[in-house]
Amino acid sequence: MEIVVGGLIAIINQGLLYWRIQQLKRKNMRNPGKIINLSRISLIERLMLVGVLLVLAMQQLDPLSVILSFFLINLSLTYYQQWHLKP
User: Fold this and answer.
1) Contact between residue 44 and residue 16 where contact means Cβ atoms under 8 Å apart
2) CA dist., res. 81 & res. 68, Å (int)
3) Whole-angstrom distance, CA of residue 60 vs CA of residue 57
4) What's the N-to-C CA distance of the chain in angstroms?
5) What pTM did the predictor assign?
6) Which contacts qualify for 79-82: CB closer than 8 Å, 24 or more apart?
């Protein structure tokens, strides 16, 4: 169960990041200030949501298993996006 919960939180994290990247591409922003501002907002959103979800999951399940599965699945999703989803 810990692996599933950690994996779901990692998928939520990567989904939010991918959504913000697509939003940035759709708006076709060229202003560096607006790009940095949107990245800050995205970072804060993901940090708050993922942090709260991880804390709730670690209170109910084994904390080490939740954290390890979150990091491993997050790394694997990042690797997949980096190498397989390039335009």
Assistant:
1) no
2) 20
3) 5
4) 35
5) 0.79
6) 81/14, 81/18
